[in-house]
Amino acid sequence: MFLQALDHVTSRTEGEAVNVFVETPKGSRHKYDVDASGLFRIALELPEGQTFPFSFGYVPNTKAPDGDALDIVLVTDGEVPAGALIEARLIGILKMENDEDGTMARNDRVVAVANLSRMFAHVQTLSDMREGFAWDMELFFRSYNDMIDRPFTVVGRGERDEAMKMLEQAEDAARRDPDVPDP
């Protein structure tokens, strides 16, 4: 269902704006994944009193180094539904590692701001966000990985230029992969 529709969505809209497909909406206690049939599946439930502080999703028709589409943490003014396709601008990267089959592997998250946001309209890079914003995001990821008993480390942060480079590499990798459909 969603997967078939996303086959026709390009990674970018106009210029440097990207399409972000939301899997897990801000405010949800559940982490959702879209399965091979195109349906949403609940992959995880957060403990009572905890919710996802941002929407989580990916850029369609990209392929990150982990083999999945490029992961995005999407900053919006409010909640958006799972399955929404939102135009956004990349502002930075949270550089992280977590355990993958007994080995620590990079699992960076690109941070984007929804273009429709009025509250974050001035934000162009991660350093434009309020003081402590990136730390808050890192703390969420530490807590999340502790909850699922997975070793995790914050490696650093990157600004907009690094995020754009990751996007370009993920677009190139998708173009070279015959399993990633041409939109």
UniProtKB/TrEMBL annotation:
Its cofactor is Mg(2+). PANTHER family: INORGANIC PYROPHOSPHATASE. Its EC number is 3.6.1.1. This is inorganic diphosphatase. Keywords: Hydrolase, Magnesium, Metal-binding. The keyword Magnesium applies. One of its GO terms (cellular component) is cytoplasm. Gene3D superfamilies: Inorganic pyrophosphatase (3.90.80.10). It comes from Palleronia salina. InterPro entries: Pyrophosphatase (IPR008162), Pyrophosphatase_sf (IPR036649). The keyword Cell membrane does not apply. It comes from the Bacteria. One of its GO terms (biological process) is phosphate-containing compound metabolic process. GO terms for molecular function: inorganic diphosphate phosphatase activity; magnesium ion binding. Transmembrane segments: none annotated.
